[in-house]
Design brief:
Layout lengths: L1 E2 L11 E4 L2 E4 L5 H16 L3 H18 L2 H6 L2 H9 L5 H4 L13
Length: 107
């Protein structure tokens, strides 16, 4: 984890995971750290570039769907998975590959 006051950009974000490196404005709690680690697993599965392409495209689709940037963010399948399991200490061991795609159609 790299603590700094620049990345992530914007005042509402406190951490961002770029290719397995977490940039944060503050120390992360254990659940926040697990959330970011789930993103690392997702990124590896999609060979990093695929993750970011899918993430942006899905955010755009969700933005059209919800007409609200925050709601769009919270409904991205990768975020749904990470938020759903950030408090589960065993999730990394039991997680199935590409598990985030099971969150695509959930309401």
């Amino acid at each position: 984890m790299i603590l700094n006051s620049i990345i992530p950009f914007g005042r509402h974000f406190y951490a961002v995971n770029l290719c397995g490196v977490v940039f944060a404005k503050q120390r992360l709690s254990p659940s926040e750290w697990r959330h970011e680690h789930i993103h690392t697993l997702q990124q590896r599965e999609l060979l990093f570039v695929g993750f970011f392409i899918w993430y942006i495209l899905e955010w755009l689709v969700r933005l059209l769907q919800y007409r609200n940037a925050t709601q769009a963010y919270f409904n991205i399948s990768f975020e749904r998975e990470a938020y759903a399991h950030e408090n589960d200490k065993d999730y990394e061991r039991q997680r199935r590959h590409y598990a985030s795609f099971t969150y695509l159609c959930k309401a």
